[in-house]
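For reproducibility, we list the full input for the ketopantoate complex.
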Amino acid sequence: MRIMIVGAGSLGLLYAAKLAALCEHITVIARTREQAEELTARGIALIGADKEKRNGNNASITFNYYIEEAEFTGSLKQSYDYLFLMVKQPSITEKLVAYVKAQMNESTYLVSFQNGIGHEEMLKSAISPNRLLMAITTEGARREGLTAVAHTGAGTTFLGPLNQEEGLGQLSHILLVELLQKAGFQAEMSNNMDVRIWSKLIINAVINPLTAIMRVQNGELLHSTWSLSLMESLYREALVLAEARAVRLPDTLWNTILDVCAATAKNHSSMLQDILHARTTEIDRINGSLLEMAKSLNLKLPTHQTVYQIVKALE
Ligand code: KPL
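The corresponding predicted structure, in tokenized form, follows.
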């Protein structure tokens, strides 16, 4: 299989390192020339649960970079079966979407891995819905420097079409799921990605801002009654909103949130990583999206409003 991964952050490097030995070819697109050159010189080092740093077999990976400022006019040089879009949600700009589109041919599928909601509209306006898959993952990963990534917690990856009507008829994706499983990821096809996206939105809306504000690893949230009660308030407020929008969430979602904290106990959430590196966070697309939806329904989400304002101040 031939895969392009756009985004050389923690998830992009994790997936590239684990898939390298199983794919005919992988191209990783970094944001800067410096990172692409470092990766070309050193390859990706994967730090496993045992904290050992291993330089994998990167022979099948090439590294390149995307210049955000430049108008993209290049044409497709390689053909890919899948293009994994693994940049943070705020980086999905019209220019990036045009770049991504130019890397696809009529048989390439785009798999979009983001937290939050909102980006799917921009993708849908440029990429045919039958070429678009959404992915939701709870894998925990932390980038260390430009070329190393620590796998800080095993999670699950769900993939599926954006529109339920497209169903699971696309048997070809079974090969992708099997490939991910062979690489060591727990992966599944899903035909209710809307529910998965909402569930992940709530998981992130509960875990990410609190870890960013408290500057703690995900597991720490489980160790104090007051962080647990804040988590519960965030969860309950989000549930009221989901109900008002007739989104049917699994009854087990609260336990899933606790399980994600435990499974990624040593992880710095992506929002904490952004705050620590003075980057824009995804708060607008996570708690901010919930607040926008609540406003249009005349609902109040006071705990979300508070964490939103604190994270904005930290940004
Ligand atoms: O998705 C995550 C994130 O950090 O954005 C979790 C699952 C919370 C893992 O840290």
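The radius of gyration is 19 Å. The chain has two domains: 2-191, 195-314. Both points were considered when choosing residues for closer inspection.
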